[in-house]
């Protein structure tokens, strides 16, 4: 079975990453204890994210083999010491070797240019060595999972540098990025710059991007996690928010890790959901919200409700409104359940398609369904929805506006020009504009807006005619 | 004489396994079951001997399937080789002939095709091993679905390899057309590319459609009074029963057993018409069999009405349609009848299938249909069983659907970059479109 390497960059990336490793271990542990205590073996589903190392000989064991020491398939990068040091003092430390940490002391100062250009060049060799070392320990490398924030300097700058490095080193391995976009009232003043500059790299080098924004994470936590106490300054505990993102990655890979009547290999996700290389932004939502202690009311009672909730904006990890504007370009659903039958899924999806979802005209069958028989730890079932929807352009328009507000005055630009040119700003903005236009174009060809004649013509090209 | 089955991809492997199970099941079904055991060669009759020789390598009372199982996903292969399921069966796969790739194709036809070229050496070696273990090859039977990446992409490549390896052997490819709206967004692209490649390299394509199989399964499940949703096993069972009714030994007028390629010769008068459709009657659930008796005339009447209605099922037919209002036309038909009785069906066939309107204008009336039967053994538990294989227009609607849907995507240039990554460019797509449009047109003009 195929393996994945997690690359976690910056403070945000490291924290989500740790949550992820914690949850991944728990998931496998609960599976093993529920089956048979004798069956503590390293199997193909464990190999997706972990190596099994024989410490005495210092070699990786192939699966299946008895469980020895598990090591994470990960590269941890941060230009500040704090978070990485706290990992080293946590119980998770045994998952990682010293070489897997790539760190500096001084930080990128919330500056994309420092992270991307300065640290990028400085650590290029080290990063590529470590990535290669991890890749060589996989018998079939399936994907790289990048986790980083978009607002800061290290995550957005160095994270996107690594992305382009991966594109160069492993052009055919799927690159899936989970970037965390900053809140509107973010305390980092330069975050619009960082986000726009980083978005350009995401658009050009990733195969699949599952954007997450802080605001919607806060919404979900305050709605569904009864144990989380809101801090005095009105902020949510980061831990619960990180749990959501970490679960997103677990659910995303569930169908390629575990058995199921409808397997979805990870590479099938971009293949089915990304019709054009640049439009690879997928809006995700998870039902139910992935907390063990979730108030009972938020766990859907039956299959039909799961699918009704699937389109509800309450569970989306991005503040957009797919119900109101735009069209679906393609949509994927990954269901984890022991009991739900294929025919029930089909019926519900037909219903959704008929009543609630507007698809782009040329891709009305743009559905991908996965069914995996292993439910998530502590929940009876879960449904992950991945929507390639044109409404994501609203996120980009908003981002562009915040960028423009700053850039009009050239505020803070001088911090960046040590490392990049002004032209880079212009290009990044132009790139974003172009992306927004591409989504608009899709909306136009789908007949939502009164289309011009040229659009109509391109939508219905007559089929080839065979002359006799 | 032997046949070699190529199980390609997930669907191919599931179906292929059922094919061998069904063959054995049929061979063990006998009027007097106590007498039979496959292990003891002296107890078996000609039919069983022919069938076993055709599909199994027999060595020291062990049966090894004449099959290559090829997949890139380990899960399905693991199930095949699982010892528990092996011990339940009377036969097994040869380890050499189970080929697993480490690289999935991710629903990408182009990626599967590339993976095929990487595994070529391996596959050909196993294939040659199979050849060495068969005295003479009758037909090669690849089984694959059109939707995914592995079965279709890798499958298309493997079929081409085998064609190069054995240019004169008969390649009968069984293809499974995906649901109209299915699990794979790019299924129509994948289907199109596969069809155009297979149309070039295979001698005949036996077409099954998931939509129809699903309908059929639903009918059987509800007939047998069970209250459960249909599943993939029901559908695979139906498919294999159809297929095996055609693969089991059948004899000509002189009561000697015919080879498969000989049977099909009459069905393929022109190299441009390669699409075969299989219709079988009676369509009953196992539970209902014991309570039913049939006459040849009613079975054939049913078949003819199914044919005229352009339907695979004997339900929901429009019985008022007359032969001159037929919704499908064919180049040739082939009837296989299996039972214990010696009655002749020629009269009935003449009555229902001797209408020139059912055939293309240039088919001479002597070539309308040919008949084969086996009179010393019925098929499974069916007292009488008739299979009709026709080279007719029925699959064209599925092809038409595939082309128009993929053309719509192609017009938007959607998803093309995934294929370009593995060197399948727009021109390759266009060539495929041209080829399949030609096939559709030539069938429509019958």
Count helical runs of chain B: 16
What is the overall silhouette of chain B?
Answer: globular
Number of strands of chain B: 13
CATH topology of the largest domain in chain B: Rossmann fold
Which runs of chain A of at least 5 residues are low in confidence (pLDDT < 50)?
449-457
CATH architecture descriptor name of the largest domain in chain B: 3-Layer(aba) Sandwich
Q: Please give the number of β-strands of chain A.
A: 16
Query: What is the CATH topology classification name of the largest domain in chain A?
Result: Rossmann fold
Proportion of residues in helical segments of chain A = 40-55%
Helix content of chain B: 40-55%
Give an overview in words.
The complex is a heterodimer of chains A (468) and B (446). Chain A has helices at residues 10-35, 44-47, 82-88, 112-136, 154-169, 191-205, 214-224, 238-257, 268-273, 303-310, 342-355, 392-408, 413-416, 422-445, 453-459; strands spanning 3-9, 41-42, 50-54, 59-61, 65-66, 69-72, 74-78, 101-103, 141-149, 174-181, 208-209, 212-213, 283-287, 328-336, 367-372, 382-389. Chain A is of the alpha/beta class. Mean pLDDT of chain A is 86; it is low at 449-457. Chain B has 446 residues and is an alpha/beta fold. Chain B has 3 domains: 2-265, Rossmann fold; 277-393, Tubulin/FtsZ, C-terminal domain (60s Ribosomal Protein L30, Chain: A, 2-Layer Sandwich); 397-444, Orthogonal Bundle (Helix Hairpins), CATH 1.10.287. Chain B is globular. The two termini of chain B are 35 Å apart. Chain A binds chain B through residues 1-2, 44, 139-140, 142, 172, 174, 259, 261-263, 265-268, 270-277, 330, 341-344, 362-369, 445, 458-461, 463-466, 468, and chain B through 73-75, 102-104, 106-108, 111, 149, 180-186, 229-232, 403-405, 407-409, 411-415, 417-418, 421, 433-434, 437-438, 441, 445.
Question: How would you summarize the topology of this molecule?
Answer:
The complex is a heterodimer of chains A (468) and B (446).
Chain A: E1 3-9, H1 10-35, E2 41-42, H2 44-47, E3 50-54, E4 59-61, E5 65-66, E6 69-72, E7 74-78, H3 82-88, E8 101-103, H4 112-136, E9 141-149, H5 154-169, E10 174-181, H6 191-205, E11 208-209, E12 212-213, H7 214-224, H8 238-257, H9 268-273, E13 283-287, H10 303-310, E14 328-336, H11 342-355, E15 367-372, E16 382-389, H12 392-408, H13 413-416, H14 422-445, H15 453-459
Parallel strand pairs in A: 1-7, 1-9, 7-8, 9-10, 10-11, 10-12, 14-15
Antiparallel strand pairs in A: 2-5, 3-4, 3-6, 13-16, 14-16
Helix pairs in contact in A: 1-3, 1-5, 1-8, 4-5, 5-6, 6-12, 6-14, 10-11, 12-14
Chain B: E1 2-8, H1 9-28, H2 46-55, E2 56-59, E3 62-65, E4 67-71, H3 74-81, H4 83-88, E5 91-92, E6 98-100, H5 109-132, E7 137-145, H6 150-165, E8 170-177, H7 187-201, E9 204-209, H8 210-223, H9 232-247, H10 260-265, E10 275-281, H11 286-289, H12 296-308, E11 330-339, H13 346-353, E12 369-374, E13 384-392, H14 396-411, H15 416-420, H16 426-444
């Amino acid at each position: 079975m195929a393996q994945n390497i997690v690359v976690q960059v910056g403070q945000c990336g490291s924290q989500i990453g740790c949550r992820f490793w914690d949850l991944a271990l728990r998931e496998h542990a609960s599976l093993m204890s529920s089956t048979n205590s004798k069956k503590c073996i390293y199997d193909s589903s464990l190999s997706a994210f972990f190596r099994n190392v024989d410490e005495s000989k210092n070699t990786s064991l192939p699966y299946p083999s008895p469980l020895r020491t598990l090591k994470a398939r990960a590269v941890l990068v941060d230009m500040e010491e704090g978070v990485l040091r706290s990992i080293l003092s946590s119980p998770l430390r045994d998952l990682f070797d010293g070489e897997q940490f790539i760190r500096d002391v001084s930080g990128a100062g919330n500056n994309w240019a420092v992270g991307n250009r300065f640290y990028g060049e400085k650590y290029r060799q080290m990063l590529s060595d470590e990535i290669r070392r991890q890749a060589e320990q996989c018998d079939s490398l399936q994907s790289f999972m990048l986790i980083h924030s978009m607002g800061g300097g290290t995550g957005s700058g160095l994270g996107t540098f690594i992305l382009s490095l991966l594109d160069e080193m492993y052009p055919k391995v799927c690159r899936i990025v989970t970037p965390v976009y900053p809140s509107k009232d973010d305390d980092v003043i330069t975050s619009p710059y960082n986000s726009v500059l980083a978005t350009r790299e995401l658009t050009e080098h990733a195969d699949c991007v599952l954007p997450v924004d802080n605001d919607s994470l806060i919404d979900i936590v305050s709605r569904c996690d009864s144990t989380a106490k809101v801090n005095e300054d009105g902020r949510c505990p980061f831990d619960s928010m990180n749990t959501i993102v970490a679960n997103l990655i677990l659910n995303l890979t569930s169908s390629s890790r575990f058995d199921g009547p409808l397997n979805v290999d990870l590479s099938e996700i971009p293949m089915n959901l990304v019709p054009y290389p640049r439009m690879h932004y997928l809006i995700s939502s998870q039902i139910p919200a992935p907390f063990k202690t979730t108030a009972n009311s938020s766990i859907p009672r039956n299959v039909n409700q799961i699918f009704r909730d699937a389109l509800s904006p309450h569970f989306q990890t991005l503040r957009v409104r797919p119900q109101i504007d735009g069209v679906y370009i393609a949509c994927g659903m990954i269901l984890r359940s022991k009991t739900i039958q294929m025919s029930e899924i089909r019926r519900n999806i037909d219903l959704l398609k008929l009543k609630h979802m507007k698809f782009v005209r040329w891709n009305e069958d743009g559905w991908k369904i996965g069914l995996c028989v292993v439910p998530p730890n502590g929940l009876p079932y879960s449904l992950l929805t991945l929507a390639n929807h044109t409404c994501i352009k609203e996120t980009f328009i908003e981002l562009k506006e915040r960028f423009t507000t700053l850039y009009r005055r050239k505020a803070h630009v001088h911090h960046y020009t040590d490392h990049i040119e002004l032209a880079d700003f212009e290009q990044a903005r132009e790139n974003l504009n172009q992306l927004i236009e591409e989504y608009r174009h899709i909306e136009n060809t789908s007949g939502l807006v009164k289309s011009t004649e040229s659009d109509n013509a391109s939508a219905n090209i007559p089929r080839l005619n065979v002359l006799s | 004489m032997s046949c070699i089955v190529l199980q390609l991809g997930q669907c191919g492997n599931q179906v292929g396994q059922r094919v061998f199970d069904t063959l054995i099941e049929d061979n063990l079904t006998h009027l007097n079951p106590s007498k039979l055991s496959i292990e003891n060669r002296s107890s078996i009759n000609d039919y069983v001997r022919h069938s076993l020789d055709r599909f199994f390598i027999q060595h020291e009372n062990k049966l090894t399937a004449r099959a290559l199982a090829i997949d890139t996903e380990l899960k399905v292969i693991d199930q095949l080789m699982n010892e528990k399921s092996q011990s339940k069966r009377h036969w097994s796969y040869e380890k050499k002939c189970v080929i697993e790739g480490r690289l999935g194709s991710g629903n990408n036809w182009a990626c599967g095709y590339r993976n095929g070229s990487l595994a070529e050496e391996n596959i050909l070696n196993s294939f040659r091993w199979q050849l060495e273990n068969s005295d003479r090859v009758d037909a090669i039977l690849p089984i694959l679905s059109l939707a995914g990446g592995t079965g279709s992409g890798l499958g298309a490549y493997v079929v081409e390899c085998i064609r190069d390896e054995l240019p004169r052997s008969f390649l009968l490819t069984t293809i499974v057309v995906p649901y109209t709206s299915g699990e794979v967004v790019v299924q129509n692209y994948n289907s199109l590319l596969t069809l155009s490649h297979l149309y070039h390299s295979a001698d005949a394509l036996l077409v099954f459609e998931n939509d129809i199989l699903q309908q059929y399964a639903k009918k059987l499940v509800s007939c047998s009074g069970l209250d459960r949703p249909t599943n993939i096993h029901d559908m695979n069972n139906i498919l294999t029963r159809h297929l095996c009714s055609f693969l089991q030994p059948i004899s000509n007028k002189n009561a000697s057993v015919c080879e498969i390629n000989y049977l099909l010769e009459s069905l393929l008068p022109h190299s441009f018409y390669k699409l075969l459709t299989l219709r079988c009657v009676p369509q009953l659930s196992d539970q209902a069999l014991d309570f039913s008796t049939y006459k040849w005339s009613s079975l054939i009447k049913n078949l003819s009405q199914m044919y005229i209605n352009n339907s695979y099922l004997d339900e929901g037919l429009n019985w008022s349609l007359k032969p001159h209002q037929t919704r499908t036309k064919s180049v040739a038909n082939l009837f296989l009848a299996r039972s214990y009785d010696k009655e002749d069906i020629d009269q009935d066939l003449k009555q229902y299938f001797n209408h020139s309107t059912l055939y293309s204008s240039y088919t001479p009336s002597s070539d309308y249909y040919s008949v084969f039967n086996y009179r010393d053994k019925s098929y499974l538990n069916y007292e009488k069983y008739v299979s009709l294989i026709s080279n007719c227009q029925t699959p064209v609607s599925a092809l038409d659907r595939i082309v128009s849907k993929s053309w719509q995507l192609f017009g938007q240039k959607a998803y093309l970059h995934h294929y370009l990554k593995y060197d399948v460019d727009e021109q390759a797509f266009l060539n495929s479109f041209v080829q399949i449009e030609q096939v559709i047109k030539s069938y429509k003009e019958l």
